[in-house]
Amino acid sequence: MLQNLLTIFFFFSLGYIYKKLKIFPQEYSKSYIDFIMYVGFPALVINNIYHLRFTSDVYLILLWGWIAIIVNIFFSYQVAKLLKLNRESAISFVMVATFANTGFLGYPYILSLYGPEGLRYAVIFDNVAMFLPIFLMAPILISFAKKEEKLFKIDLKKLFLFPPFLSLLIALALKPFPLPNLVLKILDILGSTVIPLILFSVGMNLSFSAVGRNLKPVFVVLFIKHLILPLSFLSVILIFGVSLTLPWKVAVLELAMPPMVLASIFVIEANLDKDIAVSSVALGIVLSFLTVPLIYYILENMV
């Protein structure tokens, strides 16, 4: 585990160091992210979903993932009220305390800790139990934050044209058909470029400029996101007698990922509390190098 985590840390640190030394201007990261979103991610998603076996556990982790998110929205909002945050700050708090970076950081972590088979479960969980919920629920939460009677617009066209999600639909459509080995090999090669590029680009975009403001709510966000949410999820499924097969382990670990970048983007675009969102994302990425191994250790040794 240590060797795999050090590999993740290396690529992540490399991006941050290259930015600080100005070897690569930060604006270069947009090209990397565009390649990831429009080339690498689609190939990785299609390849992994095409080879994924849809057992009952797969459907159950998706269902329980939705339940965990909905419950955590209500729980984290109550915590935000205890912190006496105003409504806009409270919803910003809820967004980053609930939605996890199951793609950009989840994929590297899961691949390193659970291998290619684990990555397949991470891909389906990321798209169906994390990306789809935030895309559908964020407009509702933003409308509540702004006290608007009219629901903030849900752009279904944007949802279905989002490259990873569109790739999921394509992969599901292709599953009944045999694909040529050449196509599978191309998908595999393109998909293999994603992990190092993701980590490098995340490192290049890491910023701590807003961390000094609102430290208390940010630390509470990260406590909920990194520990309370995954450990509560784990406790509940164990109470229900669930056997911790690989799909369930992946689901727990995905919920332990740091706050989602897309959640912070929704917050910023809606003019909510940018400082809480940006600081939570930045500190969460760094903290994940401690908390993700801890959750992994619990899954493998204490359950």
Describe this structure in words.
The protein has a single domain (2-302), classed as Na+/H+ antiporter like fold (Up-down Bundle). The longest helix has 40 residues, at 106-145. The chain is globular and about 55 Å long. The protein is mainly alpha-helical and 303 residues long. The chain has helices at 2-20, 28-51, 56-82, 87-98, 106-145, 156-161, 163-174, 181-192, 194-205, 215-239, 246-255, 261-269, 274-302. The protein has 13 helices and no strands.
What descriptive keywords fit this protein?
303 residues; mainly alpha; Na+/H+ antiporter like fold; 13 helices
- Could you say which structural class the secondary elements and strand pairing correspond to? mainly alpha
**How many structural units, i.e. domains?**
1
**Average pLDDT, all residues:** 90
Total strands: 0
Query: SSE order, as H and E?
Result: HHHHHHHHHHHHH
First and last CA, distance? 18 Å
Low-pLDDT regions: none
Level-1 CATH class name: Mainly Alpha
How much strand content do the residues show?
A: under 5%
Helix content: over 70%
Largest sheet: none
List the helices and strands and how they pair.
Layout: H1 2-20, H2 28-51, H3 56-82, H4 87-98, H5 106-145, H6 156-161, H7 163-174, H8 181-192, H9 194-205, H10 215-239, H11 246-255, H12 261-269, H13 274-302
Helix pairs in contact: 1-9, 2-5, 2-7, 2-8, 2-9, 3-4, 3-5, 3-10, 3-11, 4-5, 4-10, 4-12, 4-13, 5-11, 10-11, 10-13, 12-13
